[in-house]
Specification:
Elements (H helix, E strand, L loop, with lengths): L1 E6 L7 H10 L3 E4 L10 H13 L5 E6 L3 H7 L7 E3 L3 H9 L5 E5 L5 H13 L6 H12 L5
Parallel strand pairs: 1-2, 1-3, 3-5, 4-5
Helix pairs in contact: 1-5, 2-3, 4-5
This protein binds D-ribose.
The site of D-ribose has 8 residues, from helix 3.
């Protein structure tokens, strides 16, 4: 399993904890930046990670910004992406189990590195339940085609 990781300057504080969680699970990862605290625009990193996941170069992704909100909104503009903005352990589990999310988004200004480590592990190890949830996820993905 390969995980694409991206962040802006507001989320970089969580990157080390996310990488630790991914590495401990034995997964490969690619760090697509940013690499320091200089101010950058979060849509650029959302696009890099979302493209990696949507193209199949990565199986899943983790995106980090100040709140997790902007970077998740941007990622969800890319066809094939289901990016879940998560602030608690139960949501991390449900994002995988019910929504089959393929990107986890968290915020460095609202979530601690310890929690980000835990949420990453939960998200990456919880299987999709399928069944009635698959029907609903299929309906989500059909919404992408609504405007042709
Ligand atoms: C950057 O200051 C901040 O707006 C960004 O990290 C994020 O919180 C946006 O949603």
């Amino acid at each position: 399993m390969k995980i694409a990781i991206g962040c802006d300057h507001g989320g970089i504080v969580l990157k080390e904890a996310v990488i630790k969680a991914v590495a401990e699970l034995g997964f490969d990862y690619e760090d697509l930046g940013t690499y320091d605290t200089a101010s950058v625009d979060y849509p650029d990193y959302a696009e890099k990670v979302a493209d990696a996941v949507a193209s199949g170069k990565a199986d899943k992704g983790v995106l980090l910004c100040g709140t997790g909100i902007g970077i998740s909104i941007a990622a969800n503009k890319i066809d094939g992406i289901r990016c879940a903005h998560v602030t608690d352990a139960f949501s991390a589990q449900m994002a995988a189990e019910h929504n089959n999310a393929n990107i986890l988004a968290m915020g460095g200004r609202i979530t601690s590195p310890e929690d980000a480590y835990e949420f990453t592990k939960i998200f990456l190890t919880t299987p999709f339940a399928g069944g009635r949830h698959a029907t609903r996820v299929d309906k989500i993905m059909k919404l992408e085609k609504r405007n042709g």
